[in-house]
Structure to design on (139 residues):
């Protein structure tokens, strides 16, 4: 059974809905929207490459800070967070803030429970730091 099928079956067995998208490159990703208790919302993604030996977990839409005068402050915050978090990595691309973590599976069969736990860990770290990004965005 493919790693995508293992993850799909896990989601179905837990009644968790994530949209499944087949990419032209052969990769497959699952995504869903998740709201934060403090008002924000993000898109959660689990993306399998075409060989299904790497899974990129992403939290997209954490913030959008495009003011060039805030770029240094954003990068200082990202550096601080990336220093303090062992697994979650926060990124800025064209002002869009996201969090990510990659898992190399090699030829192993996916442990879907571990993948979901890791995705939830990434989501929690994003939610914990959401107020810091909002403070920068709206300051």
């Amino acid at each position: 059974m493919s790693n995508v099928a293992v993850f799909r079956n896990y989601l179905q067995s837990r009644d968790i809905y994530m949209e499944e998208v087949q990419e032209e490159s052969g990769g497959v990703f699952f995504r869903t929207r998740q709201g934060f208790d403090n008002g924000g919302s993000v898109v959660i993604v689990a993306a399998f490459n075409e060989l299904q030996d790497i899974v990129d977990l992403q939290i997209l839409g954490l913030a959008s800070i495009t003011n060039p005068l805030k770029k240094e402050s954003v990068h200082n915050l990202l550096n601080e967070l990336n220093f303090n978090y062992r697994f979650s990595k926060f990124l800025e691309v064209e002002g869009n803030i996201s969090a990510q973590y990659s898992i190399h599976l090699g030829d192993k069969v996916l442990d879907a429970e571990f993948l979901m736990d890791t995705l939830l860990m990434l989501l929690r770290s994003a939610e914990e730091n959401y107020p810091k990004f909002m403070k920068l965005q709206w300051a």
Summary: The CA atoms of residues 8 and 46 lie 11 Å apart. Residues 3-138 form a domain with the Yope Regulator; Chain: A, fold (CATH 3.30.1460.10).
